[in-house]
Amino acid sequence: MNFKNFPMVPRVVFGRGSFDQLEEIITSKRTSTSSPFIFLVDDVFKGSPLEKRIPLYHNDKVIFINSDVEPKTSQVDALRDSIKEEFDALPSGVIGIGGGTLMDLAKAVAIMLNNPGSSEDYQGWDLLKNPALYHVGIPTISGTGAEVSRTTVLTGPEKKLGINSDHTPFDQVVLDPDLCTGVPLNQWFYTGMDCYIHCIESLTGTYLNAFSQSYGEKSLDLCNEVFFNGSLSEDESRDKLMMASWHGGMSIAYSQVGVAHAMSYGLSYLLGTRHGVGNCIVFDHLEEFYPEGVKQFKKMVDKYEVEIPKGLCANLTDDDFDTMISVSMGMVPLWENALGKDWKQVITPQKLRGMYEKM
Ligand code: NAD
Ligand code: ZN
């Protein structure tokens, strides 16, 4: 038996308003006055008060990124190339400010500034030649767990797959729940449910162990407080969802996700469906696999009157279905976690097609 030697984020700050400590945190990490910090920032913050609080010195640069589409290998390579072209010296570090999309982009750009070739060469497990540059994650929406994870999920020409490595996790995370003020309700729900689904998939999976369980149970408790317990103030709710996301990410780090993620990868690959909403679309139909979790999920959908898109697969061709099915069935560890080693006796292409047709 070979046990995972899992790298954790070595430094984390938590607290409302803690963003203002960023300057102090990164100052000692500056390698020279000609080596800038690159801030990759979700463009929802363009012109916002947060933009003015970004601590810029010397030739530091802010690059605004639109997160309507999930990160691509070509986008990462282009960002790396433009940064290398603009500056003579290698940057001091990369700082991502935004949701899972910006967390993943910051990790990937920090990796690619110090590794040759294209980011698609490194999609997979432990393929990096060199460590990443110093990188900091500052989430502004809670749920994905990307702030703690050992991966950065990228869509390449051939596959949607993470760069999984010991160099991927952030060197520093700043958890300031105030930054999540103003997230639209639907998006809050979709990304928050990503965390809830991480918990259900981890806690009911065959890979479960005491490490994952301890984080997963805490995360699920926090999700229940946030999404069910009407007595939290908005501040408390943001605090707790941020920690739920962290614990949910830690839980799956040492186990695995399951059916919802395996199927939503198929939707995302073919139709570009975003991670949070895609998981919700799928999870809504998974009573057979997660009866209790889905029952509670439906209650939460009703409570917040959130719309879960329907009819996505109504006009797909046979080839489209085959593509989704093959992407989904390729996620072997996810199925194995959900259903055990004999998962193929339950999950056949026909079975998956029938399930996708309902979505
Ligand atoms: P996101 O980063 O895609 O952002 C969703 C929307 O919320 C965007 O429109 C963004 O502009 C908006 N937003 C973010 N913060 C806001 C704020 N404070 N106020 C107003 N609007 C705000 O959403 P996400 O669900 O956090 O991330 C999804 C991405 O994360 C996917 O690309 C997925 O592949 C990735 N992911 C990565 C991991 C990992 O471990 N690396 C895990 C899960 C998901
Ligand atoms: Zn997820």
From TrEMBL:
| Molecular function via GO | alcohol dehydrogenase (NAD+) activity; metal ion binding
What CDD domains does this protein map onto?
A: Fe-ADH_KdnB-like
Is DNA-binding found in the keyword set? Answer: no
Q: Using the record's annotation, list all stretches that form the Fe-containing alcohol dehydrogenase-like C-terminal domain.
A: 190-295
Can the keyword Oxidoreductase be found in this entry's annotation?
A: yes
Q: Which domain of life is it from?
A: Bacteria
Query: Alcohol dehydrogenase iron-type/glycerol dehydrogenase GldA domain: from which residue to which, for each copy?
Result: 11-177
The record's keywords, sorted A to Z, are: Oxidoreductase
One Pfam family recorded for the sequence:
ADH_Fe_C
Matching InterPro entries: ADH_Fe/GldA (IPR001670), ADH_Fe_C (IPR056798), Alcohol_dehydrogenase_Fe (IPR039697)
Entry's SUPFAM superfamilies?
Dehydroquinate synthase-like (SSF56796)
Put simply, this protein is called Iron-containing alcohol dehydrogenase
Native organism: Sinomicrobium weinanense
